[in-house]
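step 4 of 6: structure.
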Amino acid sequence: MQQEVLRTLITNNDSKIIYLIMDGLGGLPHELGGKTELETANTPNMNKLAAEGILGLLDPIGYGITPGSGPAHLALFGYDPVEDNVGRGILSALGVDFPVTEKDVCARLNFCTIDTAGNVTDRRAGRIPTDLNEKLCKKLQESISLSDDIEFFMRTESEHRALLVIRGEGLGGNINDTDSQKTGVPSLIAEGKDESSKKTAKYVNEFLVKAKEVLRDDHPANFILARGFAKNEPLLTMEERFGIKCAAIAQYPMYRGLARLVGMDVLPRPETYDAMYEQLAENYDAYDFFFIHFKKTDSYGEDGNFEAKVKVIEEVDNWVKKLDQLNPEVLVITGDHSTPAVMKSHSWHPVPALLHCRNGFGRIDHTSSFGEVQCGQGGLGRMLMKNIILEALASAERIMKFGA
Amino acid sequence: MQQEVLRTLITNNDSKIIYLIMDGLGGLPHELGGKTELETANTPNMNKLAAEGILGLLDPIGYGITPGSGPAHLALFGYDPVEDNVGRGILSALGVDFPVTEKDVCARLNFCTIDTAGNVTDRRAGRIPTDLNEKLCKKLQESISLSDDIEFFMRTESEHRALLVIRGEGLGGNINDTDSQKTGVPSLIAEGKDESSKKTAKYVNEFLVKAKEVLRDDHPANFILARGFAKNEPLLTMEERFGIKCAAIAQYPMYRGLARLVGMDVLPRPETYDAMYEQLAENYDAYDFFFIHFKKTDSYGEDGNFEAKVKVIEEVDNWVKKLDQLNPEVLVITGDHSTPAVMKSHSWHPVPALLHCRNGFGRIDHTSSFGEVQCGQGGLGRMLMKNIILEALASAERIMKFGA
């Protein structure tokens, strides 16, 4: 449904919607015919909700497409994960909690190794340790100043990865990567594809020339490759689109940043799962919608640690029980994408999803436990992830009738 | 997802994808509450794959739309069956194995009967026998020559059906049907809708005037109706779109032609099902993707022969077992459309589909036999046919991550 039509139908009330997101929740069986992580986990509380609610499968982007965290979360929040996709540089800034302004162009950097002829010999400089990265960022920040009062900021991500932000008036972000993704050749010169981006490219090249000079005696990290130049193109906020005041409860910078991108209030970083619940309870009256993000399901999936992923799901199941005290009208439990431990990576498999309503306006199905196979038989069906917000909003009676 | 985005995500590896297509596979029960052809068939091998894999239902074009073989196969191959649809004239050419060039405009002909006033009295000339059709085609080919060195070719299809190809430089295919689909009125004059098509129309009309003269003493086939004028608009090949080298193993010209349209190598015509397997085994290392086409399920469906269609499915089930020897990473078993024996025709019903992975990266569902009812409960869900290629490519780890 066109966004313009939807917006005319949005209404407000006192209902609460909770999105409980286990990152990388979807999985695969250990062996042919076996059970997935979610199916293996002992989840009496989510199973009760499954019996009372309705299940389905969500495709983050489309059939067969494996998403990164950026587009997957945008889909969860009801945005188009391709059209509204966020540039790599912006994601790097979000990942280190850098407060991006409208004057900023962001890029993801690699420290790299070049030989005396200037050819790249290692695109990751042997994956230097993070503390060396921090020292080099500090040295570059202190040694370099750019012409015309243009500011720049460097931030360490981890190992060879860093963030570069160029700040100034009228800077565009439409610039090629200087990383050619190849070795044995020099890195590329930055070129802007429009007037304002040409301006930025000039300062990027100035920065790179000076950085090469500053790093000339360092080894193996003696130069820098840049990619994913991007400005922050502001999206309509969730409040503007859906009329809901949103709060994010998340421990990891990237997800806190993604929530900020869509206009959520991001509550102070909670140290523990208990602290996450306390934040929710304390702020319960002040917001309509809560995005609650659990990261470890994805981390253990990426590690290939099936058992640890199962354990985290069981911890979250315990956490879920406490929601009885708050009695939210609408609860969605799902993930942003699948991260099967057997693959040690994100995957294309659709994500199990549970929709539970306590206001009497939720359909049910015949399912009685939360898992991939049951979700495949669920009454929600298989749907694009960006549409689950509409089911949640409607269940909360926040979408009015279309047409007479 | 936009085709441009997908193309940037395609990658290559050693995996094999097999598409086993039973033409017109989908069916209906003999009587209310009974079993379909596929459900009636004894298919222990496909049932085993169903238990190990995942089922779903594929809509070739959209809800309620009955497809012809052309669009249905394009959908199987991942093309849009409406946008990329192939003109009727081109399908006729494929059906008789005519090698279409870029100079050709093709049309489907009917031999028809006209009265002395020139009005059409029978659009099919009493369905003349095929050997008479052949004689008439030969007579027309030998008697007529067109002005300006324009060439033409006639080929018999069957009964009253034939192919006309007009060949020359700069000929367009945007021409109305001369068949008005009515009797009691004259056939229509060909008119081109653009400059190059006006040029073609001139030769078409010249051909028709001369044909009327040549056939004046024949009866009942004393004239010709033409429809579906089309040039061959080359499609991007499957290799260009998906990075896979494709081979087709098929007995019937139309399907061999459709495979050629999307850039597959078409292996020599196999006489038997055993020969089809031998071709597959012999060429297994040389290709990434195999399209294997079994025709008889459709033919018996069109004949209304429920039992014979069941038998063919059982023969194919036997054939399927041999695939264990090749151990392909990804196997898709489905049809191009439904041809229920009780309807004696193609139908709109979505087509049962089975996806089976031997690399450990396939989801399963609770289904354990291959049939329409089970497919309706399968974990793949109900999807547009053009998307099944994406599930197959992803399962073969041939699509990279989108976004960071």
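step 5 of 6: annotate
 - Chain A has a mean pLDDT of 96.
 - Residues 39 and 371 of chain A are 5 Å apart (CA to CA).
step 6 of 6: archive
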